[in-house]
Amino acid sequence: MREWWVHVGLICIPLLAVYLHIPPPQLSPALEKWHSAGEVFHFRDRKIFFRDSYGALGSSDVVILLHGFPTSSYDWNKIWDPLTQNFHRVIALDFLGFGFSDKPRPHKYSIFEQASVVEALVAHLGLTNQRVNLLSHDYGDTVALELLHRSDQNRTGHLNVNSLCLSNGGLFPETHHPRLLQTLLKDSTFLAPILIRLTNYMIFTKGVLQYINQRLKHRERWVGALTSTFVPLHMIYGPLDPVNPHPQFIRRYQQLVQKSTLTVLDEHISHYPQLEDPTGFLNAYFNFIHSF
Question: What would the pLDDT profile of 199-246 be if each residue is shown by its tens digit?
Fold first, then answer.
């Protein structure tokens, strides 16, 4: 039996070594177009990709889009044009470690740093004194809550939040159910490097996955910001979400965040509502924005 495992290991190790050095695939035409429409700025010597589009005439409203894990600003591509038709300025970025932004390794990624990246972008674009609307998803929800905390507490003065719309984020550790792969990457020092390459997620690092632990550690800070703010709040929710399952998540949200309005989309919409139902998502968001 021992000899059998030795032979398997001798065969698999060189095959794995070859696979790990296969270069990443070329970008699709759609991603190339998205990339070419963006630009970069520097945050602590790291390059951060962002898009900044001017849209509706006669409006001064600005919306900043905060994407989820493990993807990028491209998550907003299906609703980008309609947003630019309704807002003066639409801005999205790839967080550090994601998408077209730099991916330093090793690096201790944190929600606090990502919030500072957003603040730095706001300052770079000359929007420090401008009240901005935040539209966030998943991982971006937690970054938005840190920004909300800083805005309400006047900690940095770099960003003034006019409104916040969240979507399908693990706001409450008690209702969050990470997928098996997320759990393995978060907790396993041995498996993480292998799984990163085998799943072809170039941003999957143990450091990035620590945001799940950070949500638990800083729950009072971020949930406290959500429950105490006077900023208009809305939640757009896809109820088939396996990470934040229905009805536990919504019950908890309504129990704790009583000042927020809520849109629950059709029952077949899951974790990425802006991609699965862009029309329903946009209708919900515009109804929220027009309500105040």
Answer: 444 444 455 767 778 988 989 999 999 999 999 999 999 999 999 999
Beta bridge partners of 41: 48
Convert 274-292 into a string of H (helix), E (strand) and C (coil).
HHHCHHHHHHHHHHHHHCC
Pairing of strands 131-136, 160-167: parallel
d(CA 202, CA 12): 22
As a whole number of Å, the end-to-end CA separation of the chain is 70
Tracing tokens 């990028």 back to the chain, one arrives at 72
State how far the Cα of 236 lies from the Cα of 79, in Å rounded to an integer. 14
Question: Which residues sit opposite 217 in a β-bridge?
Answer: none
Q: Tens digit of pLDDT for each residue in 116-166?
A: 999 999 999 999 989 999 999 999 999 999 999 999 987 666 799 999 999
Q: In terms of CATH, what superfamily is 29-290?
A: Alpha/Beta hydrolase fold, catalytic domain (3.40.50.1820)
Mean of the per-residue pLDDT values of the chain: 86
The residue written with tokens 């072809």 in the block is 200
- Lookup: tokens for 57: 């005439």
User: Kind of pairing, strands 46-54 and 89-93?
Assistant: antiparallel
Domain residue spans in the chain? Answer: 29-290
Say how far apart CA 39 and CA 100 lie, in whole Å: 10
CA distance 167 to 137: 5
**Calpha distance 217→220 (Å, rounded):** 8
Residue type, 59: S
- Helices in the chain by DSSP H: which ranges? 2-20, 29-36, 80-84, 111-124, 139-153, 180-187, 191-198, 206-209, 211-217, 219-228, 248-256, 273-276, 278-290
Exposure letters 270-282 (e unless 16+ CB within 10 A, then b): bbbbbbbbbebbb
Q: How many CA atoms lie within 13 A of 85 on its CB side?
A: 6
